[in-house]
Amino acid sequence: MTTNNHEVIFAIVNAGYAEDAMDVAREHGAQGGTIINGRGVAREKDAAFFGITIHSDKEILMIVVEKDIRDQVLHALYQQMGMQKQAQGIVFSLPVSDVAGLVKRTEETKTKQD
Hints:
- The protein is 34% helix and 34% strand.
- It is of the alpha+beta class.
- A four-stranded antiparallel sheet has the order 2-3-1-4, with helices on one face.
- α1 packs across α3.
- The longest helix is centred in the middle third of the chain and has 15 residues.
- The protein is elongated and about 45 Å long.
- The relative contact order is 0.30.
């Protein structure tokens, strides 16, 4: 078990965009993720205020990444999947205290991505 070197990134996007979000994350060093289906509960008047259309069907992409690539993955996801895009994504990360079962990136892999 490893400690304190990872974060989990959540990308909440309109249904049908989680695979695209995962492709973006992989381009920036993420290894893989998990997609969970969900439903948004925003109020229509709030959407009108912000000038967006609410799609209630959502996908939640969870990706555990090493801290050294977190910022680049978050930034890329928001740039390509953010609220102004069709995916209308919200992206954030949370610290992970312990991790078990992940394949460690090799130095060769890190060098290719950096």
